[in-house]
Sequence to fold (149 residues):
Amino acid sequence: MRVDAFLADTAEVVQGKIYAMGAGWNTIYVRQFPAAHRRLSVASTVHVPFTATNASHNFELKLLTEDGKEYPIGIRQNAEGQPEPVRAMGGEFTLGRPPHLVDGDEQVACFAFTVDGMRFQAPGMFTWVVSVDGEEATRLPMRVQQASN
Fold:
């Protein structure tokens, strides 16, 4: 499956379309470290071939550091009520085969994941990795650096 993706200040999916503001960047500038970035979104389109419709698929988004380690994208409470890092987002999706779909045509699934208050301890290069059905589909590089005065 082909996946296209981009970074934006904010994005959402409404009626099968991605609506984004502040899209097309790859660098976050901060005044000092540690830093919390107010909001960022990763939006993507998954092009599902005709032969892969009417089947369940898994979508996953994670963030890696320069050395390939998973970087936490948030914090949540575990079953014991203790905070634990969130290292991936995603879920399952299925696209059907409506009657008007011509044999051989693809379907497009749109996704937008928004992260509020993302924390960065130091400058560095990161990579958002989008996987479908356990296979890496695309990478989005993202640099976090200190702003010049």
User: Anything to note?
Assistant: The mean pLDDT is 95.
